[in-house]
Amino acid sequence: MEMPKYLWQVTYSPSGAAGLQQEGGTARRDAITRMVESIGGTVESCHFALGGHDMFVIGNLPDDVAAAALSIRTAAAGAARSESITLLTPEQIDEAVKRPTDYRAPGK
């Protein structure tokens, strides 16, 4: 079974931005890759960005508990805020729309 895929939207704190300025982008990418691999995952891509978030990382993790562990470690360090988003394939959406559910819209 394929590992779940995640998108992490990262925003640096002032101290995190200062650390990035000191280390550079490749060192930061390598540190993130080591962190994700240490919990059994892989990093597919890592991109710095302009706008509302400073970095976007796409990777695979064994499960949501691993994602929570990374989120807690990142938050505790205080240098960045990371938002984890689970990504689904088109095939997973095909499966989801075929799954029966008992739903009633409000007021119906």
UniProtKB/TrEMBL annotation:
Organism expressing this protein natively: Rhodococcus erythropolis (strain PR4 / NBRC 100887)
Protein name stated in the entry: GYD domain-containing protein
Domain of life: Bacteria
